[in-house]
């Protein structure tokens, strides 16, 4: 019958007040831990997906939207720009620019985004081909690892894209050639896992075709029997695009959504480029790091409020531990005096009560952490659809250790006054009162 | 075995309670009689080391209690002095057996479950080993309280008004039990009471 066991039995002897303290404790700890997890994983994803990109150039609009759409693939495009307008950035001999990646965004398949781009896109995210090969012709696609596993697609599968990002059968581009999966990328942990990559030319073909169809020329459906249609054969209208290695600069009238730019060096001229684009052209240039920091600042307000709420809950839970221990002293003072009669020193009584506070803190902490990680795992599903990122409840943070320290401290502080009171009780008086 | 000399105590610094010198030998049974308010409980607490005298000394089994440090006194009390209170108190969260185990553990005595069940059987409450004290009748509670006072085989047993709430039959029974158990461990027994019924039973008496 050691003290620890005795403290535990004392607590479980009062299940209701123990439950109340535990629920409050677990709620506070769980909420803070959940915030930490969410924040950490979100920031990790955002940081990872910065991918060394210095500038995103696209149509005028909200700079944050431009970044969210073209780098994180969670917002709608700001619009399109003609290649003529951005050809300066596409020039491989540009003195300030190391890499440029053109992006065409706007279509999707089963809510996974289809991005028209070129092979340098893979270098940005250190992506490597896992299975099959990279796209070489229009309508060939290479899937991000997450897309392939979520949609259970494999090399050779065919599908039709749909316009926009929502899942809507009416928006399906079913009158074009089907897309053919030619390869699947290895897992990178970055946003590219969630994308369906195809040459920029594909998106032009899809939409040109659409325009033809809408013009009502009465052209019969191309894909009456698409499976017999050899996907390598190129529609006569677009044979110009057949070689996807032709520089985009050769199609000045065509449009893309944006270009991602990496500078050779972050010197004065390079940094000036953004300002000069925004002031002197119809284009918009945005710096990812700045926009993401703005986003953090905006999210930070809500997060601060939640964190304050969690702190209040933790404080109240500490108060509840204090009150339940303090009020239990009144009815337990005889048994505490009795323990003294049986040979317990005042310091043992002190320890007994402090242990009760600390046990509550530890058990509350464990329940809270369990709740937050289970909650995170549950939330992960919902977040994946809205943020395009996979979250996990199985990640544990070093901050959670600090949280344990804080919980122990609160348990101790809540118990210390009742414990002092209990250890100072005059046993003779208490026992004389009782008789 | 249990000795006092020149024992004084004052609660408020003005009225001084003076106690007669006591000298109880090993294995003897004594009755300490006094009216309410005569300081019986105070004396019992002084003898049990629950209070420390302002003057004078208390010796239990050759050790002067006032010379012990506070925590040494707690240990000493747990090991050498068994106290039975008028009202029985227990650690409510624990079973009867656990309460007795706690008594052994807090006194720093070797844990001995056999001793506990033997003692409880002897006191006819062996079947309550795993019960919570709340579930016991008054009589059973008192027996368990006696068991707890005896579990560490103390040198001295102090009983505070063990019979005042009992009818004649139960009164006799409890005193018999106390005497019997004190004899069994060879302890000195001191019963503190105002219960006149006990006068005939004890040869050795002290009046306050």
Question: In brief, what are we looking at here?
Answer:
The complex is a heterodimer of chains A (435) and B (208). Chain A has helices spanning 3-12, 15-48, 63-72, 83-90, 120-124, 145-151, 200-214, 268-280, 288-341, 346-387, 398-424, 427-434; strands at residues 55-59, 81-82, 97-109, 112-117, 129-132, 140-143, 158-159, 162-163, 179-185, 196-199, 255-256, 258-263, 283-286.
Q: What proportion of the residues of chain B is helical, as a percent range?
A: 25-40%
Mean pLDDT across the residues of chain A is: 83
- Beta content of chain B comes to 15-25%
Total beta-strand segments of chain A: 13
Structural Rg of chain A: 31 Å
**Radius of gyration of CA atoms of chain B, rounded to a whole number:** 17 Å
Kindly name the structural category of chain B: alpha/beta
Largest sheet of chain A: 11 strands, mixed
Tally of individual helices of chain A: 12
Helix share, percent of chain A? 40-55%
Oligomer: heterodimer
Shape of chain B: globular
**Residue runs with pLDDT of under 50 for 5 or more positions of chain A:** 214-239
Shape of chain A: elongated
Distance between the termini of chain A: 28 Å
Class based on secondary structure composition and strand pairing of chain A: alpha+beta
Order of helices and strands of chain B: EEEEHEEHEHHHEHEE
Residue share in β-strands of chain A: 5-15%
SSE order of chain A, as H and E?
Answer: HHEHEHEEHEEHEEEEHEEHEHHHH
**Count of separate DSSP helical elements of chain B:** 6
Span between N and C termini of chain B?
Answer: 20 Å
